[in-house]
Amino acid sequence: MDTGQNQHILIQASDLTIGYPGRVICGPISLEIGAGAGLGVIGVNGSGKSTLVQTILGALPSLGGTVAYKGRELNENSLEFRQNVAVQASDGAFFEELTVAEHLEMTARGHGLASWKSKVGRELEFFDLQDQAQNLPSELSSGQRRKLLLAATLIRPAQILILDEPEQRLDVKIRQRLYDRLGEYRRDSVAILAVTHDPMMLRSCLDEAFLMDSDQGQLMAAAHGAQWLER
Amino acid sequence: MERSGLSAETTPRESIAYDPSQVLRRVRTGRTFAERFDAFSDMYVWALAAVVALTYLTSALYGAIFVMIGQGVPHLLLPTAIWDVDALSVFLLPVMLAAVFRCMLFTGPLGLAQEKADWWLPLPIDRQVLLRPAWLKALGLGASSSVFLGLLWFLAFFGVGREFMPAVFGLGMVFFILMGLGLAATAAGVQIRGRQVVARRISSAVAAGLAATAAALAAFGSSDSAASLLGSAGLWQVLAVLSAVFCCAGTVWVLRGIAGTPGAALREGGIHQQQLAGLLMQGDVRAVATMKPAAPAWRAFSARLTGRLPAAQRVLALRWLRSGLWKPAASISAAALAAVLLVRDVANPLAACLLLAVLLGVLNSSLAEAVRPVATQKELGELLGRTSFQIHRTALAFSAVVAGAALLLWCAGLGMLGFLEAAAWFNWLLGALLCAAALASSALAHAQRGERDWAQLFSNASTEMNMSAFLLQEFMTLIRALASGAVLYYVLLAPALPVPWGIWAIAALCAAPAISKFFR
Q1: CATH of residue A173
Q2: Residue B269 burial by CB count (10 A; 0-12/13-18/19+): exposed, middle or buried?
Q3: Same structural domain for residues B507 and B447?
Q4: Do B53 and B125 have their domain in common?
Q5: Tens-digit pLDDT profile for residues B160-214
Q6: Interface residues of chain B, partner chain A, Cβ below 8 Å
Q7: Tens-place pLDDT, residues B302-315
Q8: Residue A168: closest CA among A107, A91, A223, A87
Q9: The ABC transporter domain covers which part of the protein (chain A) (predicted)?
């Protein structure tokens, strides 16, 4: 299944079987994500959406098949992968003694952004976190912590964004703003792979959906995926 | 909003020269004097507490060794006892090193704390910035755990009647340091290459092989010469040289592959290190008793086995069986009986008391872990349609039955070996039942205690008395668990004598909270 421009394939999963030792969740799955593609992974709870993403990222070993990044076997340790693939965790741990702004500073500087101060300011503004910039993580609500994780994913440069239910715990206003921004990213040739339960996300910024309802899953237009989620 | 897309052409090919820990350092150095003083005094208190804890632990273990070999206490001459303590020391040496290796494998030994893994691993920075501190920490962990066990081993080795030999001790400690470093390096090499499962299998096979060799040595009467060899400085010199070679080879092996350490391995190592620290700080099995999914066959068998139990009892029984919480108590019982059967000096009443105390401590912790969810989460009781009081009573009944079964089996084993007087069956039967009720009560109390903020506890303790009160409070559940076996200790030490009323009173007092709940 090809999702995105053939001429610039970023991630290619071939005959990928996902699951845990002794328990196959699904497969074989074949997927291609090209530059500027927008693919949503949908399905019921427990269908293996996050497992698929974790396997693609190399965080979980696959039970079969291969995953390639730009034509080479995916290596999450490689410099190129770390430079170009931005992954948002569904939940994350924080440094107790660092403020919100310092967390973002660390990410921005770690990616070599020269104008990191202004970028941190813009992300704080985008996610309505200006008032919490000097707060410690323990002083944030769960939704604000979620915004911090998303801000850290978006502050850095990337060719592909991998998001795991980014809509969780976000209010509708921020959600829509985020989807608009993701749409702009795609126009800028940044690919997006997102696990989601939100039809609005599929309609706003993705063009295809991968429904995990069978061994091999099925690729469909984002609008159909949104309808499936609304059923 | 500026877009963050980056084309391949503009992607830098070099890693970023940035150390993310500098933000942490900046925050720490930017503290006010009062904050710095607080941080320093916290560190000071922690270091002091660690030294005091290690001293007490060493003394306790040293005492335990002497109790085990029952100095001045009549031993049973069991026909199966083919080893003496010297043979045991030969056997223990490699077993201890295998334990250090397994500990290293469990802790990674390369690991990154969860927040560091989440925030630093995805950065395109030079990985050496993250790996160097993790590597040094792994070496420190390996060396310190090996030295600690080495010290205990020498305490026992010289303590069984040998004269202290400084040269042997000095060379031995060099050996333990180098072996610790070498084992940490080997475990790191295994971790980097993702071969932990194979390494675990090999180390188990090696341990089993060593046990067989030591048994064969003892059977052919060669264990004495093997033990006397350990008293020669020459042997330790050779061992020190070999361990230096091992250490160097391990280090080279690690340095060849460390750059490719998988992020997932670092993350898992960090989680396990945190769990180990929690275990040491809290004395709690909760960290390492992580529930592993039981095999389907075992799940089906346990479901059939518990099929007729009431719902609440069944939940607890399934948790106990499927999570493997029964294993520590079973292993301790089996190891204790094996030691009594096979090692001449261990077959004495004092050692049996010590092993019983260990069993009570382990039962207390694992039963506490089994009943913890229902003891602490009110909503679980509500799901089962029971009030807090009812669910606590269920937990008590479950713990009492399990502890009672374990203790009766233990008593039967000791009785068959001749430690218990058959004529005094009433004493040890009632003692075991009282002990089971008391253990149930202490396990429930242990499960209900909250997470301790040790830093706060220590900083609030302005005097030694104050500190002792805190520690007493903290370990009260454990003390209760150990005291609950009062009658059993007595019948082990003086099987022919009637149990004084004071001993019965202690056991009854420990059991009273559970008994009163049963009959309320």
Answers
A1: 3.40.50.300
A2: buried
A3: yes
A4: no
A5: 667 888 899 999 999 999 999 999 999 999 999 988 889 988 888 887 787 777 7
A6: 1-8, 11-13, 15-16, 18, 20, 23-24, 27-28, 113-115, 117-120, 122-125, 127, 259-264
A7: 888 888 888 888 88
A8: A91
A9: 11-229
